[in-house]
Amino acid sequence: xxxxxxxxxxxxxxxxxxxxxxxxxxxxxxxxxxxxxxxxxxxxxxxxxxxxxxxxxxxxxxxxxxxxxxxxxxxxxxxxxxxxxxxxxxxxxxxxxxxxxxxxxxxxxxxxxxxxxxxxxxxxxxxxxxxxxxxxxxxxxxxxxxxxxxxxxxxxxxxxxxxxxxxxxxxxxxxxxxxxxxxxxxxxxxxxxxxxxxxxxxxxxxxxxxxxxxxxxxxxxxxxxxxxxxxxxxxxxxxxxxxxxxxxxxxxxxxxxxxxxxxxxxxxxxxxxxxxxxxxxxxxxxxxxxxxxxxxxxxxxxxxxxxxxxxxxxxxxxxxxxxxxxxxxxxxxxxxxxxxxxxxxxxxxxxxxxxxxxxxxxxxxxxxxxxxxxxxxxxxxxxxxxxxxxxxxxxxxxxxxxxxxxxxxxxxxxxxxxxxxxxxxxxxxxxxxxxxxxxxxxxxxxxxxxxxxxxxxxxxxxxxxxxxxxxxxxxxxxxxxxxxxxxxxxxxxxxxxxxxxxxxxxxxxxxxxx
Amino acid sequence: xxxxxxxxxxxxxxxxxxxxxxxxxxxxxxxxxxxxxxxxxxxxxxxxxxxxxxxxxxxxxxxxxxxxxxxxxxxxxxxxxxxxxxxxxxxx
Lengths: 514, 92
What we know:
The complex is a heterodimer of chains A (514) and B (92).
Chain A: H1 14-35, H2 41-46, H3 53-64, H4 67-80, H5 85-109, H6 114-119, H7 124-158, H8 162-209, H9 215-226, H10 240-253, H11 258-262, H12 270-301, H13 304-310, H14 317-366, H15 373-397, H16 403-427, H17 433-452, H18 455-461, H19 475-492, H20 496-500, H21 502-511
Helix pairs in contact in A: 1-8, 1-14, 3-8, 3-12, 4-12, 4-14, 5-10, 5-12, 5-21, 7-8, 7-14, 7-15, 7-16, 7-17, 8-12, 8-14, 8-15, 9-12, 10-16, 10-19, 12-14, 14-15, 16-17, 16-19, 17-19
Chain B: H1 2-36, H2 38-42, E1 44-46, E2 49-50, H3 51-91
Antiparallel strand pairs in B: 1-2
Helix pairs in contact in B: 1-3
């Protein structure tokens, strides 16, 4: 095997800058076009409910496939082989759950946020406050992961400082969301999904071309170079219960992610919501299958030493693979794709956080659902600016944080705090206001507490000998806890009005709003 | 009228929960095998292609197939019954 050529990563790259400015110009043109169509809150948060099913499928894919999945999984597979595939599969199997249990009822019951669905037939104020806290917790952790990832990535690829990179991402994202709202965000996500899938497919084809288009030959070469262990479960699954807990968080976290749930309000009806998950599952599954090839390709064609020399976590495996296959031109293209990836996800997150602040807390709780239209839109935009600034600050404050850890945290909170309350409110007649509040608060707080006393924080970060809680991921305890507390509190103090209103909810869930 | 809606809701939940259980079993079958049967997962079917890698790819394919089954069912059965219910509602 030839030793890989020295990388030009970190030096200003002409193609990267060209693609970068082309992407910025195209997306700002979209934003200008979208801004002229964004005059009401419904257009700002739900794109006027005029996005088609297939379009929304692409946008969901663009909203979901983050830098953590593109750069993170490719890096993880390139360094640890098979273990990385636990993430590839786990991040996909949440989608069928979203399709079967959540998408259609959500579209028929709500307006902008998942709190609309949970608070339906329950008392608005307590449920909305709790759901907004659950939403903002997930959005904050996910934003930290994306902003820190963005800062590191852009610093490595374009050679600018970390802080400047974070500010650039924050400002460009804010331009999309503030002026173009959900319409601009949707199209940025669609463009990003197409670019990312094209980029990944191109890398796959170029990689497999060197192995007679036989993936087994690629895996065999990896095993020959780095030992047969790369083809089997290894160090990452040292504790089986940790693996199972992680699997639970990945599977049920997707159905509790506010920025994903929000996208179902952008389509005209439940049938289009169903169609959009079908497309999203197909696209995201194809992408995660390709991460198998990208990861092993980087392992073989770039080499582990060259990958860790650039970044210890392996996050630069995919860009390095691009350089090994197609020189600085392809590297530049993939760098720009990675940048687009982060922007699209951050825009979706900001919009969902702004919806929780303005629609749930300001309009529904503070104004009791009765606010003038102009005020609603103004508050929505103000909330967007606040979140954009918070995102930039979080990115700068949490510099150096482990990105995968933050994403894991977001999924644990989403799966334990948001998912149980959402499912119980849809399925169970006996669910009550305080059951919902208790479920969201317990799930969120318990997952945060257990992570605070987990081996990741206590041993890896603080250097203690042992941890109070043995698992890195708390989902195996906190998801059942979220359900149990919700059921128990509801049973202890039944709410007659909520029980009686279930028939109307069930009818609307099936028939839609008439 | 509301009995028809109830029956349709029940039918949808049966399909939705059944398919959810199937995906759950599929993925956690894979995860339990990864966690507790590491040696078996390392066996190579052809050189390079271990049972573990094949199983991971099959989980993704399985997720595709179950979403396809659901959408096919919903389009062919659920939507037809729903539009019949809507028709009744319009005549009422």
